[in-house]
Amino acid sequence: MGVKCAAILVLATVQALAGEADVVPINWKRFEHRAAPNDNLQLAARPLLNAARYNLAWAPAGAAKVETGWRDFKKVDPHNFTRPVCSVAVASAIVLKTGVFDEKAVGVPLDEALARTLRLIKAAARAHNRESWKYPWQSPFWAADLAQAGWMLWDQLDKETRRLLVEIVEFEANRFLAPDYRVPYWNGKGGDTKAEENAWNATVHQIACAMMPKHPHAPRWKRIGSELMISAFALEQDLKSEAVVDGKPVKDWLRGYNVRADGALINHSLFHPDYMTCVNFNLHAHIVQSLAGQTVPEAADFRAEFIWRTLAAKKWPSPPHHPPGGAIYAPGQAEVYYPQGTDWFKGRLAIFYNLDTWAYVFGWGKDLAEPPEKWIRLRATAIVKYQERHQDCRIYGDGEFTNFMPREQSDFGSLANAYLTLWLHAHRALSPTGNWLAPLRQ
Predict the structure, then answer these.
(1) Helix or strand (DSSP H, E) at 316
(2) Helix (H, G, I), strand (E, B), or coil: what is residue 220?
(3) CA separation for the pair 202, 157 (Å, rounded)
(4) Angle between helices 139-152 and 195-211 (to 10 degrees)
(5) How far apart are CA 170 and CA 215, in angstroms?
(6) Contact 442/298 with Cβ under 8 angstroms?
(7) How high is the mean pLDDT of the chain?
(8) Torsion angle of alpha carbons 226, 231, 237, 238, nearest 10°?
């Protein structure tokens, strides 16, 4: 269930070690050269700008909800208000900094889009208050999104917001250094893998090391980050693996596993394809470490291609699985097949589209009849069709995906990450993968 509250209370008393001066801003001049022609990047712009139109219109009300205190409402309100604020902040920052912004498509001028984004960042940063927004189970990846948004717009932030972001990142990353913290595992027991939480928890260590590479805790952040990423999608067979990742054998990183041998991931007591896409959290290191010009940890790629191929190519017969059976990536169909059904929504596309961009960039699945590029085009086109149903360019209609309030904002984040991945690839700016612990004494 994530980090224990006791650990949070202990670390809340630790004096901050870093400050604004410890942050190394992104050197945007590295990306001024002309990007290589990329049809997929151009294709990715349209659903992203549509999502920006909807979410930047939503932003003032979203910020106001956090500013005026969701704490007076239900316990789940941080998830429904702070989480989407962080998602929209980082997605908007990506739109603003990659040059894809188009005033006509987005519906507001550039300076207004920037002002709304900065307001989101400040609102969420002030609300954290070293209490993890009272939602410590998910707060590390909300903090990672918020920090990335601020880091990308560092020159536009006021001093208070810069200070708050440094404190938030440091606080959330340090939680996992508590003496009583142990990386959790599923180990074939119960209905919830620990893959998603281990992967999303690692995102705060990715951004912490990207922003503050010389922080005194950076070596420890890297170690726990590697352990979380490797553990997230580990198989039982990996407990015996001698393959070296980030400086030591996989078996020495692990105390358990989180994915079945056949590639199925169990969450909510279902074989759940949606949660397999949480490998995107691990792969996100390729984004933030590349923005920083740093080596990407080898752990970021651990089992990622295996998970994508399980989605794209492995066939699940019916029976025992739901009809019609077959691969989760159903040929010619943007919507995926759920072998045991889903408790979310069958029309989710953005999370799979995001993962497909990584498969395309890394050249996975070139041997398949339907390679990643085909899935990218199919799903991007389908997302635009979803958006074109609505004047405000939202993806979901009435009665669709109603059990997940931040659906539009979460998908905006996925679309923005997909675009940024393709943008970095087009600029030939994705950093090499290696042992990010190499400069340290092993």
Answers:
(1) strand 315-316
(2) helix
(3) 25
(4) 30
(5) 9
(6) no
(7) 93
(8) 10
pLDDT of residue 202: 98
- Residues 358, 141: Cα–Cα separation, whole Å: 19
Residue 259, both tokens: 């994915």
| Type of residue numbered 231 | S
pLDDT tens per residue, range 229-259 = 999 999 999 999 999 999 999 999 999 999 9
Q: How far apart are CA 303 and CA 157, in angstroms?
A: 37
Asked if 138 and 200 touch (Cβ cutoff 8 Å), the reply is yes
Q: What interhelical angle do 350-362 and 372-387 show, nearest 10?
A: 150
* Cα distance between residue 87 and residue 415, in whole Å: 11
DSSP-assigned beta bridge partners for residue 433: 296
144, 136, 130: which is closest to 2 by C-alpha? Answer: 136
Q: How far from 318 is each of 136, 308, 322, 325, 328, CA to CA, in Å?
A: 40, 21, 6, 5, 12
* Residue 271: φ, ψ to 5°: -70, 105
- For residues 103 and 12, the model is more confident at 103
SS3 of residue 380 by DSSP: helix
* pTM confidence score: 0.94
C-alpha 262/C-alpha 276 separation (Å) is 13
Angle at 233 between CA 230 and CA 236, to 5 degrees: 95
Q: Which two tokens stand for residue 399?
A: 């009665």
Tokens of 78: 């941080």
Domains parsed from the chain with CATH numbers: 48-428 (1.50.10)
DSSP-H helix ranges across 107-217: 110-128, 139-152, 159-174, 195-211
Please report, for residues 243, 398, 431, the alpha-carbon distance to residue 289 in angstroms, rounded to integers and kept in the order given.
23, 39, 7
Q: Integer distance in angstroms from the first to the last C-alpha of the chain?
A: 30
Task: Tell me the pLDDT tens digit for each residue of 15-70.
Answer: 456 677 789 999 999 998 877 778 999 999 999 999 999 999 999 999 999 998 75
Q: Is the pLDDT of residue 6 over 50?
A: no
